Amino acid sequence: MRLTQFSDYAVRVVLYLATHADRLCSIHEIAQAYGISQNHLMKVVSDLAGAEYIHSLRGRGGGIRLARPAAEINIGQLLRHTEGQIDLVGCGSCILAPACGMTCALREAVGQFFLALDRYSLADIIAKGRPAQLRQILTVQ
């Protein structure tokens, strides 16, 4: 299974914000840290703010931060939100779908994928890695 670029960027944004929880961050600095498009990140940040994963403060001195502690952000739920309905091979438009067992098998596989991710919070993901090294990598010079 392959996640969309939108989901990839959403995870990157929340990882960045979790490793910089002590302050407000800007979209510009996140884009710079990852070497990715600021325009793409603006769409992701807008979506994450609308879904209440992050808070966005406008104006001078504004920025973004997590809307709740990293331990309360479930990775499975986040990816369900960003991915939407997943149809791995286009079963929804296939003429065999009503009679084919593959549709059920693929739906089950996607469900198991998300169930595995449901076991992890954003804090767990950070702790499983090397938190100090992650913060160092994500520090914009």
UniProtKB/TrEMBL annotation:
InterPro entries: Tscrpt_reg_Rrf2 (IPR000944), WH-like_DNA-bd_sf (IPR036388), WH_DNA-bd_sf (IPR036390)
Keywords: DNA-binding
Single GO MF annotation: DNA-binding transcription factor activity
GO cellular component: cytosol
Keyword NADP: no
PANTHER family: HTH-TYPE TRANSCRIPTIONAL REPRESSOR NSRR, WINGED HELIX-TURN-HELIX TRANSCRIPTIONAL REGULATOR, RRF2 FAMILY
Name of the featured protein: Transcriptional regulator BadM/Rrf16
